[in-house]
Amino acid sequence: MLDAVLPIVVLITLLVSTIILFGVAATDGPLQVALLVSAAFASLIAFKNRHTVAAIADAAVGGVTSAVGAIFILLAVGGLIGTWNMAGTIPTIVYYGIGLLSPAWFYLASAAICALVGMITGSSWTTAGTLGVAFVGMAQVLGLSTAIAAGSVICGAYFGDKMTPLSETTILVPKLVGGGLTVGQHVKNMFWTAGPALGISLVAFLILGLVAEHGDSLSTEEARRALAGEFHMTVVNLLPLILLIVFSIRKAPPFLAILGSALFAGVLAPFTQWKAVSGFVDDPSLSPFVTGVRAVFDALASGFVSKSGNERIDELFSRGGMASLLTTIWLVLGALAFAAVMEHAGFLRRLLAPIVGWATTRGRLILAVNASGMGLNVIAGDQYVADVLPARMFREEFAGRGMAPQTLSRAVEDSGTVTSVLVPWNTCGAYISGVLGVSTAAYLPFCFFNLLSPVLDIVYGFVGFKVPMLETEAVTDQKETA
């Protein structure tokens, strides 16, 4: 147990130290260094316990390899934000959005819309990286809090992600839990925590909108005129968004769907936003064709830079590019390297074993699953680790007590999946913070859905509300499956 705890102590000490020393800038490098040093320390403890250097190296490489898909998605989203800004897609969403959405119910509307889009796309990442970016931009224009706006986007996106059979984790968790659990049963049971959590969140966002104080902002008409002065406003600008939704519905791989939409926006931009494109490249000696090609590559790689002369507009839409997410990728790699060493050496299982033994009642058992999921999001830095380990470790205990598999799957999702975005060095927290441009610490207090979901699940466990049990004759079959 001491060997398992020591790397955690080192990790927490280094993380806290970097946050105290560097503040918000900790995610620009110091946190990444802390994670890698912690991974090296965990490796030394593993060597002491007779794990070979080759085995630990292979485990670390394997942990990093597991994130390759997520890394490609991160890069694609960075490129998408750049070309969507250049093509006027995000500015157009902001242009129409500030004309339709009153500041009083802006937070409520952004959460509700992101929930709907999340259900359609099946991805909280895609929703946050597209509409989420636009909603945070609208909040800036309207003088509203970007932290609350980010919280509303996250609440809606994660609810939508959990309430659709298109989501990766919604498909994965029932398979991990076993017992013949279907995705439909899992989603239906999960609604009993997700539904009330979103409902309370929407009420909270409505109240926050009604009492919101507007900061330094342009008036709606001033903002619309400024946007129309820099970008040619037309519904054609929304074609990249429509294409992305079509790709998602057709179940195209996320990386290809996002990159395809980004490339389409880049090709569209010279035809619809020539003024912005030529100003971005700023080289009159180039032909229109070469200017367009260069603009696409620059926007994808380094992000679009608006040169309208309007400080507010230029600040808002000069974003994106694959390079802008490299520090986020660095953070993800550091977290996964640490998690891989901890898992391979058996440290994570050693930490969880006493928790399983402590869970002697139904309420304690569900509390233990939620605590394990949230703890692993902090320690391991990846939602998949936080989903996989509790699902594997607790399924036999749930089966032995005659508890239906959807009870475990809901607890796993309400903790491992939903709270991942609340940890700065977690893959989800790093991604969302990176694309929205809002720190995790800033938006965390307003992620009501993500905070309430595990709380409701734990309360249900202790009071016995909506905790499905197996029929007596099914308990034996469930034990055998587990």
From TrEMBL:
The chain crosses the membrane at residues 5-25, 31-47, 59-81, 93-119, 131-159, 190-211, 231-249, 255-274, 325-342. Pfam families: Na_H_antiporter. InterPro entries: Na/H_Antiport_NhaC-like_C (IPR018461), NhaC_Na-H+_Antiporter (IPR052180). Signal peptide: none annotated. Keywords: Antiport, Cell membrane, Membrane, Transmembrane, Transmembrane helix, Transport. Its main location: membrane. It is found in: Cell membrane. Residues 156-465 form the Na+/H+ antiporter NhaC-like C-terminal domain. The keyword Transport applies. It comes from the Bacteria. It is a multi-pass membrane protein. Belongs to the NhaC Na(+)/H(+) (TC 2.A.35) antiporter family. This is Na+/H+ antiporter NhaC.
